[in-house]
Amino acid sequence: MQTANMAPLTQPKTRIYFLDKGASHGTDGHLKGHIASCNPDGSDMKYIVENIGSAPDGITIDVENEHIYYTNMATLATDSGFISRVDMDGQNNIVIVPQGVTWTPKQIVLELSQPNKKMYWCDREGMRVFRANLDGSDIEILVKNGEGDKDRADATNWCVGISVDQKRGLFYWTQKGPSKGNKGRLFCAGLSMPDGETAENRSDKKLLLDKLPEPIDIDLDIENNVLYYTDRGDPPFGNTINKVDLNTAGEHKKEVLVRKLHEAIGLTLDIRAQKMYFTDLNGSAYSANMDGSDEKVILPDDGDLTGIVCVYH
Fold this sequence. Notes:
Number of strands: 24
GO biological process, one term: canonical Wnt signaling pathway
Structural class: mainly beta
Order of helices and strands: EEEEEEEEEEEHEEEEEEEEEEEEE
InterPro entries: 6-blade_b-propeller_TolB-like, Cueball_EGF_LRP_Nidogen, LDLR_classB_rpt
Shape: globular
Number of helices: 1
Helix content: under 10%
CATH topology: Neuraminidase
GO molecular function: Wnt receptor activity; Wnt-protein binding
Number of domains: 1
Distance between the termini: 23 Å
Low-confidence stretches: none
């Protein structure tokens, strides 16, 4: 019990971390992406890693071990993507999943609640969903939609956003489809592969929503079993933030929470504060309540923003 002579307990504070792929920086033709962080209102901007020199897209954080994980799309349309880990102070930036493993790694998430901690990510042109240990070892393919250039040319095979519900033993992912094509889909499957099945033919793969404009990143309110996602397609249902109540029986329906974004991409939930933070490729970062109200621009025109994550520390 706290007394007058005891120092007040320090409550963890929310901090936002985000990626800028750097397409608007410099004039020498090279991307100069960076990792940055700020307070939830956009104040106290700090650059963690500058001049990454590739196309960073997805970001997640292991606060306990003070590690930032981020994906790099690298050179598009080539098997050159990779995943890196860096300390939260910007030191020890290392590649943990090298080129030649994942074509175009996109959103990445960590599952830290189990002793055997894992990272999960989607591979767009690779048409796969992956899982691996936090050091990049023991790589598994959980979903594989095709192989070769012919399959790769079909954007309905492209996996982009991902989230994991360890409580219910499920993971969710988006397949974006062609740009503004209204062929995007949302799927789920079990964290354990069905006996005798493979990433190509698993029978537990379930379609939750289809004919979406262009769904991108995902986050989950696990306690309430509600999924949130960004959509980059055309208005009125694209360039939006949406939610799907996964508790409903039968056909799932989406609810549009925020509209009129500019190439919506990254999304993260602050469940404790009932806030969500999201980005668009036009270079802005936003906050809103989880019902979509009180939308605010917290970083206006700050570059070419992609992944975003909020943490408490």
